[in-house]
Design a protein that fits this description.
Bound molecules: S-adenosylmethionine
Shape: globular
Radius of gyration: 24 Å
CATH architecture of the largest domain: 3-Layer(aba) Sandwich
Number of domains: 2
Number of helices: 15
CATH class of the largest domain: Alpha Beta
Helix content: 40-55%
Strand content: 15-25%
Order of helices and strands: HHHHHHEEHHHHEHEHEEHEHHEE
Length: about 400
Amino acid sequence: MIHLVFTHLAAAILPALFFLLGFRYLNRKGIRRFYDDFWRTQSKMALEKIGIMAIDQMPEPPRIITDRDSINLALQLVSALHELGFFELFGSRRAVTEEEMVSHLGISTKKVRAAIILLMASEVITLDAYGYQLTEKARIYLLKESPFFVPLRPPVPPKQFIKTLRIDRRGGAVENWSKGISFDPERLAMQQHEQSFALGFALYRSGLLRDAETILDVAGGAGSVCIALALSDPRFKLEMIELPGSLEISRKMIGKYDVLNRITCAGMDMFVQEWPRQFDAVLFTNIFHDWDDDRCGILARKAFAALRPGGIIILQEALLRADHSGPLWTAHWSMTMSLYTRGRQFYGDELEALLSANGFIRVKTHPLLGYYSAVVGIKPRGISRKRS
Ligand SMILES: C[S@@+](CC[C@H](N)C(=O)[O-])C[C@H]1O[C@@H](n2cnc3c(N)ncnc32)[C@H](O)[C@@H]1O
């Protein structure tokens, strides 16, 4: 009898098990192929073939690459807000405040702030002296009772996105990084390289490093910015610091461009360990946007200590416009940061104030590439007092 039960169970379970194992195998194979394709394109020869060194001004990526994700996230957010009765909140009222949104939606203030920025960049709400209100476009095309209402069809069901909005995320990249632990370095290196490699070439062409020879790239990831600088100018002496667990991938990437002898890689926790000193320039690319204001302050002070007097700090970040009009891409990036990290995208004057508050002078923002800017400050000459 027992034998019969086992036979029937095996007949029912084994095909399902084989199907699941097969699916997993094919899925993994697909992912590995995706990784292999990425690494195949990373080489000095491929770069030379594109003729990058002969191009005077680094072109920004086409909008079809950047803007697809921003529109998807905006659609996702507006659909979730429909589900949460956000639009009814406005009713016949003059305006709605941030606190009212927080209490109505049951979402943290940090995420509501990021959502407000994304909604303003998406022309859904505006701000005046009374508070936030729906735009005329939103009233006509986004209210469900309007004859002009257009269903949004977001990429994932609104209920699923509401869960993402509401969970207080534990684990993930930044929580590991905050403890000095590397997180999924190969996958993240690929994502970072997509954005930062072009920024390195744009930074060189900006002329901001014209007086610099020794350069420290803090949390340099796959080494993307250092590689671009090493290939652009034989004068540069480059050093990058990264979490020890990520350095194997950094060295793999640097090796692909044949500049291992030009870039020194030091493994350390940037918040805990002492940085090398006396640099002409200290760079951060997409670093401040991962962290809260306290941690950004620590990084600014450590950079100050690592610079020689007269040296410059450069923050490469996508900045929000002061008039709250976006850009939509940066607003979506800020929402993404608020969901998955401790940080957000900044307004230019916020980063300028942060650098000034930590001793830097002649702080200024320069356009860099596409949505990216460089916020630059100088360590005054004649200062020897230790700030770290
Ligand atoms: C958003 S990525 C930017 C990487 C690189 N700057 C770029 O633009 O390609 C953040 C990087 O910070 C590194 N990182 C995070 N926490 C760190 C820490 N405590 N010490 C050193 N590096 C850290 C991560 O490993 C990751 O490579």
